[in-house]
Amino acid sequence: MFAESVAALLVTTVALLWLLRRSFLLPLPPGPRGHLFFGIPSTSLKTEPWKTYAGWGVQYGAPILCFRVYNRLTIILNNHTAAHDLLERRAAIYSGRPMSWMFHVICGRGPAVFNISGLDPRHAVYRRLLQSGLGAQAVKDYSPILEDEIGVLLRGLRETPAQFERHIRRNATAVIMKVAFGYSVLDDDDPFISTADESSKISGWAMAPGRWIVDYLPILRFVPAWFPFAQFQRQGAEWRKTLEFVSDVPHNWVKAQIAAGTNIPSFTSRLLKPGMSEEEEDIVKWCAGALYAGAADTTVSALISFIMLMALHPSIQFQARDEIDANIGRLPRVSDLDRLPLLRAILKEVMRFAPVGNLALPHQATQDDVYEAHRIPAGSTVIPNVWAILHDPELYPDPFVFDPARFFSGSGSASAGLSARAGQPDPYAYVWGFGRRRCPGIQFAEPALLLAMACILHTFVLQSAEDVQVEFTTGITSHIKPFGVRFTERWPDSQVPTSKVFSSDC
Ligand code: HEM
Predict the structure, then answer these.
(1) Helix intervals (H) in 226-277
(2) Is residue 311 within 8 Å of residue 464, measured between CB atoms?
(3) Which residues bind heme (predicted)?
């Protein structure tokens, strides 16, 4: 008996040692190692880093890469299998967010939905509230808001088409401010319009790898702002004010409206209950703020890409317009969208060709792990290279060709002339992110985008110069760099009364 116990102990010890040895001795995934102390210079990641990562994938012949900036490790997942295996199948240990001392602590954004760790109990509460507030039923309730705001958008495009970006941005902000807070954006100078754009830029700057010394030496967060080298404290304090404006002002505005009995139903007013604890109210505030932060810049990027790509591809534009004319025959409404399969395929192709988030958002490994004989240490930042996946020629032949037929197998006039390439993987598996951090706004974003797309094509013909070079901006969300698009009205005033075209009742 004694001998058996000793043998069992020995076997267990050897097995444990073997396992430990295996994971400690396994190499990190391949990738550029850079300088012994500094690692990779962060300046090399300033412009379109997704292309740099894809290039490294070819150079090192591996779909999963590793590099270091100072003392922080980043793992890049350059293909769909690695992204799926780690971020979906092992979501339990890949749902963290990398700590950004600059953004989370100095700018005060730690508790935000986007930033909170997947292990924090608040994460599950946030997700539950967002899913119920953005689910199919909620979207039905918000349809009148979408339809009303489309009227304002079309009017703006008609009056000052050259400013189409400004109109699109106004529309995205107005919709989400109404949904989240019941707040009406009345004019283009509303502070929430410019702040949406600014907040998104601040998030990108504050989380840029290698930019803030405090991210690599967190002890520096205690250095006072007046200290000569503490520029990060001064900049952080300024950004904090802008970001707090976005979360606190509308929340307090809803509370004041409720107290005065003048509130209109919104995500926030539905969730705020008398006698709520401070903690519960704080959760509501961060969730509503996440609607604004999640929706405002992303939908702008997708819609602007759509407009530019339609202007560059008139034959696809006209087929989509024919589908709208044949299946609906008037200004579309939310309830009509299921009758526009070609338009949905176009949206998928816009999001594949010009992804809104080329690197989604970074996840963090919360435990040591081993993948394909490589070690992934706990605490590593894990980035899915969505751009590389969506431009992988094995998944999407001729990936740099804009071709909605990849996702359209319909028949009839709308499909005439489209190449028979349907059946390529649905880009929605990647463009919305992965696992437990996947975008909770999908059910809201898709109809909002489709409605705007359908109404724009119903109302205007879009044209651009032919020799335009499509280029992209770098940021958490990426945009096609703007070029001129001409909007020609399909229904001159004399034929269709304005109120008929632009009212949501028609
Ligand atoms: C074109 C539109 C949109 C795209 C492409 C998009 C894409 C994404 C992506 C890639 C992520 C990160 C997922 C990950 O970490 O794996 C994300 C997260 C998120 N999105 Fe969206 N999104 C869009 C619209 C929206 C809208 C309309 C809302 C809300 C109304 C929203 C709310 C959020 C929130 C709250 C998160 C954070 C989830 C978390 O960290 O747990 N998004 N989105």
Answers:
(1) 231-260, 267-271
(2) yes
(3) 439
1.20.1440.130, 1.10.630.10, 3.10.180.10, 1.10.3210.10: CATH of 94-361+392-502: 1.10.630.10
Cα–ligand 1 centroid distance for 68 (angstroms): 27
Q: What's the CA gap between 254 and 78, in Å, rounded? A: 43
- How high is the mean pLDDT of the chain? 88
Question: Could you tell me if 180 and 292 are in contact, meaning their C-beta atoms sit under 8 angstroms apart?
Answer: yes
The residue contributing the CA closest to ligand 1 atom 14 is 433
- Report ipTM (2 d.p.): 0.99
What is the number of the ligand 1 atom nearest to the C-alpha of 118?
41
Q: What's the CA angle centered on 56, arms 50 and 60, to 5 degrees?
A: 150
| pLDDT, tens digit (0-9, with 9 covering 90-100), for 77-133 | 999 999 999 999 999 999 999 999 999 999 999 999 999 999 999 999 999 999 989
Q: What is the mean pLDDT of residues 442-471?
A: 93
Phi-psi region of 34 (alpha: psi -120 to 50; beta: other; left: phi over 0): left
* Averaged pLDDT for residues 463-487: 87
Among 383, 429, 428, 477, smallest CA distance to 56 is for: 383
Taking the CA of residue 134 as reference, the ligand 1 atom at the shortest distance is 30
Distance 359 CA to ligand 1 centre (A): 12
Ligand 1 atom with least separation from CA of 351:
5
439 annotated as belonging to a binding site for a ligand: yes
pLDDT digits (tens, 9 = 90+) for 271-314: 999 899 999 999 999 999 999 889 988 999 999 999 999 999 99
- C-alpha 209/C-alpha 330 separation (Å) is 49
